[in-house]
TrEMBL record:
NCBIfam families to which the protein is assigned, alphabetical: histidine_hisI, PRK00400.1-1
EC number: 3.6.1.31
Catalytic activity: 1-(5-phospho-beta-D-ribosyl)-ATP + H2O = 1-(5-phospho-beta-D-ribosyl)-5'-AMP + diphosphate + H(+)
Major enzyme class: hydrolase
Pathway terms, separated by semicolons: Amino-acid biosynthesis; L-histidine biosynthesis; L-histidine from 5-phospho-alpha-D-ribose 1-diphosphate: step 2/9
PANTHER family attached to this UniProt entry: HISTIDINE BIOSYNTHESIS BIFUNCTIONAL PROTEIN, HISTIDINE BIOSYNTHESIS BIFUNCTIONAL PROTEIN HIS7
Tagged with keyword Hydrolase: yes
InterPro entries linked to this entry: HisE (IPR008179), PRib-ATP_PPHydrolase-like (IPR021130)
CDD domains to which the protein is assigned, alphabetical: NTP-PPase_HisE
GO process terms (BP): L-histidine biosynthetic process
Stated name of the protein: phosphoribosyl-ATP diphosphatase
One MF term in the entry's GO annotations: phosphoribosyl-ATP diphosphatase activity
Record key words, sorted: Amino-acid biosynthesis, ATP-binding, Histidine biosynthesis, Hydrolase, Nucleotide-binding
């Protein structure tokens, strides 16, 4: 298990290193549009899991949405501080 901040650091490190074995890095390298499509997909899956499945499945889908949202932030060059200022 890792925290939101730990995941953020891990993803930023992989992207900065341009880790070619990472599917996440490959997705970020495709740009905001590609990552954004993935966010939309995960958002709908999270919604449906919350509506129709158990808490564990909902948590899984929400975690995937958070993961993809962080990739979108990285692809868009939006930092955690940028987001925290808006919370």
């Amino acid at each position: 298990m890792k925290s939101f901040d730990q995941l953020w650091m891990e993803l930023n490190t992989k992207v900065a290193a341009n880790d070619e074995t990472s599917a996440s890095v490959k997705l970020v390298n495709q740009g905001v549009h590609a990552v954004g499509k993935k966010v939309v997909e995960e958002a709908s899956e999270a919604w449906m899991a919350c509506e129709h499945e158990d808490k564990d499945r909902a948590a899984t889908e929400i975690s995937q949405l958070l993961y993809q949202t962080q990739l979108l932030m990285i692809a868009s060059k939006v930092s955690l501080d940028d987001v925290y200022k808006k919370l």
